[in-house]
Amino acid sequence: MKTLQIAIVFALAVFGGSAFAQDKAAPAPSKEQQAMMAAFERMGAVRPEHKQLDYFVGDWNTKTTMWMDPKAPPQSSEGKVHCEAVFGGRYVESKYDGSMMGQPFSGRGVLGFDNLGERYFNTWIDSMSTGFWLAYGHHDKATNTYAFRGEMDDPMQPKTKVAVREVIHIVDPTHYTFEWYETHKGKEAKTMQIEYTKQ
Q: Residue 61 half-sphere exposure, CB side, CA atoms within 13 Å?
């Protein structure tokens, strides 16, 4: 019975209640069904936090700096990113194409705000791995900075996790920076920075 109720609520959320409008003999939704409908609406609502992400929509040029070895000079590369709002502005999807360590490199990411969790998140997949990145974070208005935390698998030590901190700092309408910090043996170090310039 519970499954049937969820199916009814989902149909209402998607079709705007047209199922009931077409069948006038159908009973009015129960209080529980109305509560579920309201919950679905809250979950899918486009909020100011989502509209704030419109900043990232567009085409960007990137300069990436990586510190693979603290004793060696950093490696740098360039690329391009296309970002667009998807699903009615609920997410921003990014498509990166460039190079990494002298090899062609492509990646895909999603940036969004989770209404239920009350937090931002980002995901990432790319052409040099087979894993999936997920991090959660918040936005600080005072500094116009997004800060995320997550964990990644350590390729040098299988089944070992590396704590990661990401920082996105909005510099101005056409520039922002992305910083990636890893913690190894209790010590955090910045291993990557990407500078974005809007085309």
A: 5
pLDDT digits (tens, 9 = 90+) for 90-136: 999 999 999 988 899 999 999 999 999 999 999 999 999 999 999 99
* Tens-place pLDDT, residues 19-72: 444 556 778 989 899 999 999 999 999 999 999 999 999 999 999 999 988 788
60, 133: one domain: yes
SS3 for the chain is CHHHHHHHHHHHHHHCCHHHHHCCCCCCCCHHHHHHHHHHHHHHCCCHHHHHHHHHCEEEEEEEEECCCCCCCCEEEEEEEEEEEECCCCEEEEEEEEEECCEEEEEEEEEEEECCCCEEEEEEEECCCCCCEEEEEEEECCCCEEEEEEEEECCCCCCCEEEEEEEEEEEECCEEEEEEEEEECCEEEEEEEEEEEEC
Tell me: do 167 and 84 sit in the same domain: yes
Q: Which domain holds residue 9?
A: 2-44
Are 37 and 78 part of one and the same domain? no
pLDDT for 157 equals: 87
Task: Let me know whether 179 and 91 are in one domain.
Answer: yes
Looking at the structure, do residues 75 and 34 belong to the same domain, yes or no? no
Number of domains in the chain: 2
| CATH number of the domain that residue 113 is part of | 2.40.128.20
